[in-house]
Design brief:
The protein is mostly helical and about 150 residues long. It is about 40% helix and about 5% strand. It contains four helices and two strands. It has a two-stranded antiparallel ribbon with strand order 1-2.
């Protein structure tokens, strides 16, 4: 199934420490290369990744309207994880208490919520893969801290 929607503007990446995310597994320095990644997104990586994602997503137009209404695309974060030599990401999600909070008037089931959350995760991973495989050409120089124990 193909989602037939206009490609949204790529997210503007804010200077957030990815280690602050609950699901963070980032090790490395604090040069997350967000400015470079944001430029690559604008230079075609976002359009390429979004198009690939839209061709295979299970979201329909009404569910994507919810994503748009909640400004979820702009809440994505992408960053360079120098230790793992990969692009990391944090996908926006609809919280577990969506119903109690009246999060969005068109949200009516856990199935819709989990489908949107899964789709945002899939989009984030595709963006990372496209960036790493087709756009990023830099190498990271990683230096281990001086205070690591010697296991010899």
């Amino acid at each position: 199934m193909t989602l037939d929607v206009d490609i949204p503007t790529p997210p503007e990446l804010e200077q957030v420490d990815p280690n602050e995310y609950e699901d963070a597994d980032v090790v490395g320095d604090t040069d997350y290369k967000r400015d470079e990644l944001e430029a690559l997104l604008r230079d075609g990586a976002w359009e390429e990744a979004f198009t690939e994602w839209a061709e295979g997503t299970a979201l329909d137009g009404a569910e994507f309207d919810i994503v748009t209404d909640l400004d979820m695309i702009q809440r994505f974060d992408f960053f360079w994880d120098s230790f793992a030599e990969r692009v990391g990401y944090h996908a926006p999600g609809i919280p577990e208490d969506w119903k109690e909070r009246g999060y969005h008037p068109d949200l009516d089931s856990w199935g819709t919520v989990s489908g949107i959350n899964a789709a945002m995760t899939e989009l984030g991973q595709i963006v990372c893969d496209v960036l790493k495989d087709e756009y990023i050409e830099w190498e990271t120089e990683y230096e281990a801290p001086d205070d690591l124990p010697d296991f010899d």
